[in-house]
């Protein structure tokens, strides 16, 4: 079976037109994905692929920043970690839990102290833990206030 020159040229035209329509579909498919992701984030679609793509990239960067901040906040540094180590307590990374465990242990040590000096030592440690805990709580309140302001600014910039 031989292929005539006419059918060969028609075949190459068919292949070329299929390839170009295929790449057009890929671009449309990419834009459809962009639109879907924008809508999933609660953002409006402008209808311009380049603008929407830039908005999506910006929104994703903001989301990554907020997730990384959230992850770093969930594993807080414990300001009285050195005291916990002195008392042979394990640091969990949860400020409230570590505070409760440390205060419980210090109350026990204060109750079990043999001398006034030993009792004063544990009371001083307890005062330091309470002071550092309260200071840390005040800082976290300020941080969350700043985070909400950043969130509002991000929403304004993205046009939500």
Give a brief rundown of this model:
The protein is mainly α and 160 residues long. The protein is built from five helices and no strands. The longest helix is centred in the last third of the chain and has 43 residues, at 116-158.
How do the strands and helices of this protein lay out in sequence?
Elements: H1 5-40, H2 49-74, H3 81-86, H4 95-112, H5 116-158
Helix pairs in contact: 1-2, 4-5
Structural summary, described in words:
The mean pLDDT is 76. The protein folds into two domains: 5-62; 81-150. The termini are far apart. Helix 1 packs across helix 2 (49-74) and helix 4 packs antiparallel against helix 5 (116-158). The protein has five helices and no strands. Helix content is 81%, strand content 0%. The protein is an all-alpha fold and 160 residues long.
List keywords for this structure.
single chain, 2 domains, 5 helices, mainly alpha, 160 residues
Shape: rod-shaped
Low-confidence stretches: none
pLDDT average, as an integer? 76
Give me the count of strands.
0
Total count of helical runs of at least 4 residues: 5
Q: Radius of gyration in whole Å, from Cα?
A: 31 Å
Q: Helix fraction?
A: over 70%
First-to-last CA distance: 64 Å
Main sheet: strands, sense, barrel: none
Secondary structure class reads mainly alpha
- DSSP strand (E) fraction? under 5%
Number of domains: 2
**SSE string:** HHHHH
């Amino acid at each position: 079976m031989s292929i005539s020159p006419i059918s060969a040229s028609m075949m190459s035209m068919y292949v070329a037109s299929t390839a170009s329509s295929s790449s057009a579909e890929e671009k449309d498919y990419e834009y459809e994905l962009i639109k879907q992701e924008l809508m999933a984030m609660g953002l409006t679609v402008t209808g311009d692929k380049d603008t929407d793509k830039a908005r999506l990239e910006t929104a994703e960067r903001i989301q990554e920043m907020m997730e990384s901040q959230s992850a770093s906040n969930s594993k807080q540094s414990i300001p009285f970690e050195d005291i916990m180590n002195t008392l042979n307590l394990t640091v969990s990374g949860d400020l409230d839990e570590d505070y409760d465990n440390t205060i419980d242990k210090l109350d026990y040590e204060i109750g079990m102290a043999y001398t006034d000096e030993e009792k004063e030592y544990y009371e001083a440690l307890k005062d330091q833990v309470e002071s550092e805990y309260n200071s840390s709580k005040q800082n976290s309140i300020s941080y969350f206030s700043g985070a909400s302001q950043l969130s509002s600014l991000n929403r304004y910039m993205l046009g939500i």
